[in-house]
Amino acid sequence: ITVVSFLCTRVTKATEEDHVKLETLLGFLKRTMTQKLYLNAITNRQLLAFIDAAFALHFFDSKSHTGVVITIGGVVIYVSSRKQKCIAKSPTEAELVGLTDNLGLVELFHEFISFLFGQTIPLPIIYQDSTSVISLVTRGGGVTRTKHMRARVNLGKECFDEKRALVQYCNTKQMIADGASKVLEGKEFIQFANFVQGLRIAWTTGGR
Known about the structure:
Blueprint: H1 2-8, H2 16-31, E1 47-54, E2 65-72, E3 75-83, H3 91-117, E4 125-128, H4 131-139, H5 147-161, E5 166-169, H6 178-181, H7 186-197
Parallel strand pairs: 1-4, 4-5
Antiparallel strand pairs: 1-2, 2-3
């Protein structure tokens, strides 16, 4: 999903290297065309959102990339991999942009699933692997030199102060959305692909 998202930004300025990446992607799709998506039975009604960002991933314009994975009861219901629309000046800013861009989406999923069940489900938990961002959106403060970044900090803080969602820390190795924010290889890619497909794998979150 990350490779597809990246190549979509290269359509008007593709290079030979991009062509090789496209052929590799098509080869992977051909080899895995018989694989299935498994939707397992929901064991609980806890909505979890994993939001991660890769700083300055795009070489030509230095924009960062956001990956989002949302699950309910351990079942993946949403995955996205998108280039950020503004340039972040640091990894912390990139993580903050990724988080605040998707707060509304998480709240929307919470409201929709509560409607489907006919009752309010527990507050959604958003996992972040940046302690700096968690501190900014829960305690406030920090040095935000631009108005739009200050607005993002206040947007996040308002959301968590009003208990519309909860934010918790998980380390990078447990950040499921890492595979949607950057290209993974080997064992890490297989683990991410299996999780998104709904295969039962051991993947703990939040230090649990």
